[in-house]
Amino acid sequence: MSEDILRMRGITKRFPGVLALSGVDLGVKRGTIHALVGENGAGKSTLMKILSGVYAYGDFEGEIEFDGSPAQFKNIRDSEATGVVIIHQELALVGELSIAENIFLGNERKRGGVISWDRTNGEAARLMQQVGLHDNPATLVEKIGVGKQQLVEIAKALSKDVKLLILDEPTAALNDSDSENLLELLRQLREEGVTSIIISHKLGEVLSVADRITVLRDGKSIETMETDAGAVTEDRLIKSMVGRDLEHLYPPHEPKVGKVFFEINDWTVYHPEQRDRVIVNKASINVARGEIVGLAGLMGAGRTEFAMSVFGRSWGANISGEATMDGKRLHLRNVPEAIDSGLAYATEDRKHYGLHLDYDLRENFTLPGLDRLSKRGVVDQDKVNSVSERLRTEFGVKAPSVYSLAGNLSGGNQQKVVLGKWVFTEPELLILDEPTRGIDVGAKYEIYELIHKLVDQGKGVLMISSELPELLGMCDRIYAMSAGHITGQIERANATQEELMRLMTLETASGGEEQRQ
Amino acid sequence: MTTVPTKTRPSLISAVRNINLRAYGMIIALVLIMILFQVLNVTLQNENFITPLNITNVILQNSYILILAIGMMLVIVNGHIDLSVGSVLAFCGAMSAIALSDWNWPWYVAVLFAIGLGAVIGVWQAFWIAYVRIPAFIVTLAGMLIFRGLTLKVLDAETKGTTGTFNELASGYHFLGVDLRVPTLVVGILGAALFVFFAVRSRNRQVKAGIAASSQTTWLLKTAAIAAVMLAAAYTFYSYKGLPIIGWILLGLVLLFTFIANRTVFGRHVYAGGGNEKAAMLSGVKTKETTFWVFVIMGALSGLAGVIVTARLHAATPGAGNAFELDAIAASFIGGASVTGGVGTIIGAVIGGLVMGVLRQGMQVLGIATDTVQIILGLVVLAAVLFDVWNKKRATGGGLMPPIVGTTPGGSGDAKRKAKEGVDAGSTKAGTVSATTDDKPIS
Question: Is the Cβ pair B265, A379 closer than 8 Å?
Fold first, then answer.
């Protein structure tokens, strides 16, 4: 047996108009955890889809050698039969089925064509034990958290006698303790002889778990590093990923905070279905011109619900409270009113709520501001074209033209389109909900610069983020939210992660529910 | 990801290769079908198929389906369906006949009455669909029964004849005493000239702004082909009896609704709401209001189609318009509408309706039995959607079958989005998502 379990050589993959991978080489040593890092659009996921047979052999150029013999996977079934299992970022689980059923989905334990429930549940229990999942195998998958769902995916992979496990952003949706559990499980599987490839944006976690790290950039393999040499640091990785020195993660900025112009007082929102559940409880905040205000909170604290309820009652029921801008009371009964009042809300869920993926950039850029480009209901197509082209260049959207479909852009560029479409409505206050989620380092920097540009024009920004360093790096002032309450605010100068975390986990008098279903 | 600029070789071959199949596939298919029947007819029966008479007949016999298809396209693009149009058509047609014959209203008042009645019925259905959020499938299924029942009631299950100018609407060649032959030719030539003029103007503006949508050769080919078709069509109608009145009505509707769909805020909102309702809503689109008006328009067009059917038969019958909704829906899908909404063009719906009409006419001329014709039309609908699926995959570089997980770089296929939504439902995040979907405080 050779030392390398996997060798990929000269992998080249083209999409119409785009060279996604160009001569990528990747060697993975048996019994190691190998990390694949790079900016979004660097080609990591494409490479893994080739390896797992999502792109059939022949659809790309280059050679793959797995476990000592050439591999020519035509589909996922082929690769899984050989022992390569990929776990995608979006989990492929059926919520309405039990954990045990999900583990053996497509691979059912049966006797003579009839499912043997004893074997299904029994073997599932054993596999669940192995991954440290201590639930009843008959529990429905939709009833367990995302962290546990990841474990179910891994148990499912183990049921297929996995030799090489590929995880695409496994911890993106997990909290810190779930992430740590998962990484520990990977280390444990390594002891048991399972090789893993992990794609991740979280460099700290990569450095802690990986034995070797390969950096991809612009569809090319840049370098592979051994972590035990000790010379690899986050800075070193970032430099290799972006191909230039990134002095700081956050661009320098001299804040010019003006007068408070936007205020919300005693904002209360109830759950739309469970009408007696308070999701946001008497929240009061304010934003000054030229100020970036952060909103920190754990999952379920009610940050997004708060923001969306303010933005034209897009979420929740029985909303009460007062919003004022420059002392004038705002009417925010629906989204058009919110837009007219000078608000904009860039959603945390770009793909579902933020963009029309099947439409081109022009449609996406101009949708909220279409009224400005039309007279008596008739759209001026020339204006639409020129405005879109202007926004595309101004926001540095990397796309061949304004006719490109939004769905074909990388996450960072999609986010720039979302920002562009809202800036075009000339809002006074921009609410940015997780503006850099799932975006690579380089594009994050550009987004930060765009945010700075906006506040320098005297606009206010309310920024929701789950990444505390980002809030500390960007915001002039940070509110913390816990179980629907605003539990405090900290000026930038006094802000620390510890203090924020304390406020975010503060138990409030009414006692909120952490878990929203 | 490295972006490779698409090569712009100014050759004819690459121009042909770059033709957007989704947009022009059905026009090409329509032309090919006509050529096929021409060849078959000449070899089997030693007769021409492409004659001014046959072409005129295709328009006359399918006019009401084309009118319905225009409205249906808007409905489908907006992400809904309307099963009631056949019954609404019958009811409005019946009422127009009653207004004309029993109440002795002038013909134009009877026509406006039918259209208005259709719009009112549209309001009724639109209310339930847009504001109460009952699925359109259910509301219009109910409407299909309700308005068929009402038709039987007002007609007492009998046929009601119509006379005079009213009947001319469906098949006449003289409007208010004017022979329409010469106007047909004049408008055809003027139209082609105007088309070229506007095409050149918009092309120049795009080039100036540095955002030309296609290569020079592709653009030239396209513009020349469309102008040629316009001239040929005008001459064909001219050499028979001119464009019939219903042809003018159709022409007007196509121009009007193409304009509405492409160039008005309302039209763009119809697409945005159908393509991604949540994103549209959060962008300030009044999706409920948009849907409401789409169904009102569909109702009004059904009313107009009712008039045409009645006029064509010279009578309102209780069974009029039976299963027309299916023809209209089929025309939309043949014409490139996406099953999930958000995609489709007015001209596509008309081309789709014409494809069906030409197939019917062609097979009838060849003496093929109606049962066989049904089977073939069914296969054509399936093939059209299959072609659409294939074409989408061609654009994104995947196989024919939808992938298990998205294979496109950023993801654009509907299949992928649907698959993802299914997956999301299994994660705990579904709490937030479904809460926002189910209860819509946006009004």
Answer: yes
Query: What three-state secondary structure class fits B10?
Result: coil
Retrieve residue B91's tokens: 């009811």
CB contacts, 8 Å: A92 with chain B: 404-405, 423
CA-nearest residue of chain A to B208?
A: A386
| Residue A236 binned pLDDT confidence (cut-offs 50, 70, 90) | confident
CA–CA separation, B110 vs A365, rounded Å? 45
CA distance B387 to B443: 38
Of the segments A420-429, B6-15, B20-29, B208-217, which one has the largest average pLDDT value?
Answer: A420-429
Instruction: Name the residue among B252, B272, B257 with its Cα closest to residue B345.
Output: B257
From the list B1, B271, B276, the residue facing A41 with the nearest CB is B1
Phi, psi of B157 (to 5 degrees): 60, 25
- A56:B399 CB<8 A: yes
Calculate helix-pair angle for B430-438, B414-426, nearest 10 degrees.
110
**Taking CB atoms and an 8 Å limit, are B271 and A371 in contact across chains?**
no
* Nearest alpha-carbon partner for B322 in B93, B168, B139, B113: B93
Q: How far is B20 from A177, CA to CA, in rounded Å?
A: 51
Candidates B1, B202, B211, B418: best to mutate against A (most CBs of A within 10 A) is: B1
Facing residue for A273 by CB, picked from B272, B433, B438: B438
CB of A469 closer than 8 Å to CB of A497 = yes
Position with higher pLDDT, B385 vs B439: B385
Please give the C-alpha separations between residue A450 and each of A8, A387, A424, A435, in angstroms, as whole numbers.
Answer: 39, 18, 13, 11
Torsion, Cα A69 A70 A74 A75, to 10 degrees, reads 50
Each residue's pLDDT tens digit, B104-120: 999 999 999 999 999 99
User: What pLDDT was estimated at residue A88?
Assistant: 84
The DSSP secondary structure of A91-160, one letter per residue, reads ----TTSBHHHHHTTTS--EETTEE-HHHHHHHHHHHHHHHT--S-TTSBGGGS-HHHHHHHHHHHHHHT
The structural domains of chain A, ordered by start, are 4-242 (3.40.50.300), 260-342+427-509 (3.40.50.300), 353-426 (no CATH)
Asked if B431 lies within 8 A of A517 by C-beta distance, the reply is yes
Residue of B nearest to A97 (CA): B426
| Confidence category of residue A475, pLDDT binned at 50, 70, 90 | very high
CA distance A173 to A349: 13
Domain spanning B12-172+244-401, CATH architecture: Orthogonal Bundle (1.10)
pLDDT at B440 over 50: no
ipTM for the predicted complex comes to 0.76
Reduce the DSSP state of residue A357 to 3 states and report it: coil
CA distance, residue B3 to nearest chain A CA (Å): 5
Radius of gyration (C-alpha) of chain B in whole angstroms: 23
**pLDDT value for B9:** 44
